[in-house]
Amino acid sequence: MSDVAVPAGRRWPHVAVWIVRGLLALAFLGAGGAKLYGVPMMVEEFHHIGLGQGFRYLTGGLEVFGAILLLLPRKAAFGALLLICVMIGAVITHLLVIGGSPVPAIVLLALNAVVAYSQREEIASLAKAF
């Protein structure tokens, strides 16, 4: 969806998607920031995963970058797609490596899917360019 002009009948869905994008951006800025800052729980969790602390920095950086993209009107689709990929990895990691509930990652994945779906015209236009 473009942020230029929204028909009156589509205003509420447009506002709802913006609210979801804002909440997702806050969540991923917090989670990514915790990984980049080196919060002890994050350091321990990534140690348990076994891919090294560089993977923690990569994941945190991707989360922060995706959160920023979510807030940019013409880049929100790309941020959502990036974060969907990160959350697929998180769900798999929870299920196969570290244990615990994958439900938070699944919820974040689903909310990013809603944003990506709402931006499907942008994704389709990019796909046609290639």
Automatic annotation (TrEMBL):
Record InterPro entries: DoxX
Pfam families to which the protein is assigned, alphabetical: DoxX_2
Domain of life from the UniProt record: Bacteria
Membrane topology value: Multi-pass membrane protein
Presence of the UniProt keyword Electron transport in the record: no
Localization: Membrane
Keywords of the record: Membrane, Transmembrane, Transmembrane helix
Any one Gene Ontology cellular component term annotated for this protein: membrane
Chief location: membrane
Keyword Translocase: no
Transmembrane parts of this sequence: 12-34, 54-72, 79-97
Protein name, entry field: DoxX family protein
Organism: Bradyrhizobium jicamae
